[in-house]
């Protein structure tokens, strides 16, 4: 469902990851606020605002519903799409299914292989920890520690603002049924093997032990106008742990759309 629309100009559809909601993508608004883009944030079925009417039982259902929502909301209007984690997988699906209308694709720590056992991921690593931040996190500490590579005050503030509300509001029953059938029928790049020639950005965290980066890099030949970037000092929440570089890369991607 369409959760929020910010700004004006060409549409940029933003898709969040599994177990959170659109708020994890809100930092994008700061990155592009002075650019002629209209951010269209979607809430996926487990999000608190969407779960009441959610019927999806698989990743395939989620992808179909997102595609229908975009078609209903945008019609024939060209758009760009950006997705995080599970939302990155869905964004790649949308980009290929609507290739003629898609101006560009970006992903942040995108899922490539649905099964964790099939992913090439690095060992769990924490690079920086501030004990006082962890102590002050209270009942949010475990969730923050589980995913964060940089465990300092700034990263926790971003986690508390953009991630925690979605985690706490996510509907367990909806998540469980989709988690049981988490994969698309095929990788978008395999289902549509012709190279995707619109500008692309695929951003990964070097310390991301959830999806890694090797599987994403293996897609590089499919995106001849794609930037593939691995950021040190970042895990699965790469855009929260490295917000400045992420914003610059997103702005560069959007600028390349006009070349």
Automatic annotation (TrEMBL):
Q: Which domain of life is it from?
A: Bacteria
Domain called AB hydrolase-1: residue spans: 11-243
Q: What is this protein called?
A: Pimeloyl-ACP methyl ester carboxylesterase
């Amino acid at each position: 469902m369409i959760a929020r629309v910010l700004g004006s100009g060409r549409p940029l559809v933003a898709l969040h990851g599994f177990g959170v909601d659109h708020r994890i993508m809100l930092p994008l608004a700061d990155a592009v606020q002075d650019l002629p883009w209209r951010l269209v944030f979607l809430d996926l079925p487990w999000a608190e605002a969407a779960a009441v009417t959610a019927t999806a039982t698989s990743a395939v259902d989620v992808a179909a519903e997102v595609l229908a929502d975009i078609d209903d909301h945008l019609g024939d209007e060209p758009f760009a799409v950006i997705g995080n984690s599970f939302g990155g997988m869905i964004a790649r699906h949308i980009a290929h299914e609507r290739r003629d209308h898609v101006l560009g694709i970006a992903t942040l720590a995108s899922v490539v292989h649905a099964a964790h056992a099939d992913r090439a991921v690095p060992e769990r690593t924490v690079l920086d920890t501030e004990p006082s931040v962890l102590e002050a996190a209270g009942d949010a500490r475990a969730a923050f520690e589980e995913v964060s590579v940089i465990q300092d005050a700034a990263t926790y503030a971003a986690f508390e603002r953009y991630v925690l509300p979605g985690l706490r509001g996510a509907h367990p029953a909806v998540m469980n049924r989709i988690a049981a059938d988490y994969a698309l029928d095929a990788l978008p790049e395999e289902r549509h093997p012709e190279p995707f020639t619109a500008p692309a950005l695929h951003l990964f965290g070097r310390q991301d032990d959830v999806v890694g980066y090797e599987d994403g890099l293996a897609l590089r030949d499919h995106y001849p106008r794609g930037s593939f970037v691995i950021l040190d000092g970042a895990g699965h929440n790469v855009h929260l742990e490295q917000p400045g570089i992420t914003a610059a890369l997103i702005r560069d991607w959007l600028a390349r759309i006009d070349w």
